[in-house]
Amino acid sequence: MSAPACRGVVVIALALGACVQEEGDHVNEGSRADASPAAVHAWRLTDVPLLDLATAGAGGAYEFTRIIGAVRLSDGGIVAANFANPPDIRGFAPDGRHLWTVGGSGGGPGEFEAIAWIQKLRGDTIVAYDYWQSRLTFLSTAGVLLGVTAVERADARVGPGGLSLSSMFDDGSLLGRQNLLFPGAPRGEGRLIAPFLRVDRSGSTWDTIAVLESIDHAEGAEGRPILPLFGRSAVVMVAGNRMVHGMGDQFVFAAYDHNGVKEVEFRLGVEPRAVTPELLEQAERAQRSATAGAGPRANQADLDWRYREGPRAATVPAYDRFRAGGDGRIWVRSYVVPGDPVVRWYSFMPDGRPEGQLEVPAGLDLLHFATAEVLGVWTDSLDVQTPRLYGLLPR
Questions:
Q1: How far from chain centre, in Å, is Cα 108?
Q2: Is residue 17 scored above 50 in pLDDT?
Q3: What are the backbone dihedrals phi and psi of residue 172, each rounded to the nearest 5 degrees, phi first?
Q4: CA dist., res. 21 & res. 261, Å (int)
């Protein structure tokens, strides 16, 4: 197949047998005319959590430094992963009682350097990915170690940095992408295109799903390529055996099969949010507050340059996160500008139709969606994190 002509776009050519969909291929469009958010129904959360692990018990098992992921099990239990300090995975009963912990720092079976992500597979098996040790760890719902698989980085074939694996398809293969921010980026402004890969568990065999838009770049203060302020970076997710991909120029994204065929396109009529002086002031104030006392003065100088002289987009991205619901829905989070008091999520049916919207406080990051509940991580004013489970109701 022939790749489309892309003005101002650089293709990262890696001889991976890329598959690009040709114009005229059938695509299921969920809504040919972009639906307005006012046309979809509204969701709301229960006024109080159904379960808050901060109040369910006491001790180290309930203290997290950074929760990298949390999933809900079929029996109602919760599994949560701490990124590091310590890197571990903890299981909790439906009533919040701590049941087990697996992990700790080290290179032995069931140990981690740090945990990049966790995912619940069919049968409630838990898989955790340690990028830094390049391996997958599989656990039962009782915290029993089922196996550890080393993943070949394949640096020579992909290039410096190797592969970054983001999640697992239902068939057991993994979604991978090149682990470099700007591989081969030229000087000036533009957008890179890169391959998105389907990788087996060993990392030794992989195929290109599609070559798609990947990240914006511009020239930084020292001449090195950087992501412009509010620039676009691909948002990607696994949903069953589909890859969901979008750039956020508009509220449009698509699902692709393993052969790179675009199966469904999702659309919502949300106008791009302009980068105004007021929005810049809000974002800068929030970022300075978040980094105050956390680093050298050079960090503040970098913020000065980023917000006053550096390159930036005219609008913020439409969205910044996808989540796959356990009931087949696709949930999409509107882009969160630092300092926003509320966050909007939109739900779509598997065939692409927009369905509903949900507003939550900015401190609540939603990780797991089901038909009648959501599991998230609440971060308080002291940056203390805890998993919370809420009911999901029609407004």
A1: 28
A2: no
A3: 95, -10
A4: 6
CA-CA distances (angstroms) from residue 128 to 31, 55, 123, 386?
36, 26, 15, 19
CA atoms within 13 A on the CB side of 147: 6
Closest CA to 376 of 49, 85, 123, 63: 49
Residue 53: which residues within 8 A CB-CB, separation 6 or more?
62, 78, 80, 92, 96, 386, 387, 388
Q: Which residues pair with 126 in a beta bridge?
A: 120, 139
CB count in 10 Å sphere of residue 321: 17
Of how many residues is the chain composed? Answer: 395
Exposed/middle/buried for residue 129 (C-beta within 10 Å: 0-12, 13-18, 19+): buried
| DSSP secondary structure string for all residues of 190-236 | EEEEEEEEEE-TTSS-EEEEEEEEEEEEEE-TTS-EEPPBT--B-EE
DSSP characters over 93-140: -TTS-EEEEEE-BSSSTT-BS---EEEE-GGG-EEEEETTTTEEEEE-
Asked if 115 and 126 touch (Cβ cutoff 8 Å), the reply is no
Nearest partner of 247 among 260, 232, 262, 228, judged by Cα: 232
Pairing of strands 126-130, 117-120: antiparallel
Q: In angstroms, rounded to a whole number, what is the distance separating the alpha carbons of residues 246 and 203?
A: 25
Q: What's residue 373's pLDDT?
A: 96
Q: Where is 306: in which H helix or E strand?
A: helix 297-308
Give the Cβ contact number of residue 231 at 10 Å: 19
Q: What is the pLDDT of residues 234-258, one digit of tens each?
A: 999 999 999 999 999 999 999 999 9
- The whole-chain average pLDDT of the chain stands at 86
Whether this prediction's pTM lies above 0.90 is answered by: no
CA-based diameter of the chain, in Å? 59
Residue with tokens 């022939």: 2
Contacts of 96 (CB under 8 A, 6+ apart): 51, 52, 53, 55, 56, 57, 78
The CA-atom distances, in angstroms, between 183 and each of 5, 20, 85, 206, 210 are 20, 20, 31, 20, 17
Query: For the chain, first and last CA: distance in Å?
Result: 47
Among 148-162, 170-184, 235-249, 261-275, which stretch is predicted with the lowest mean pLDDT? 148-162
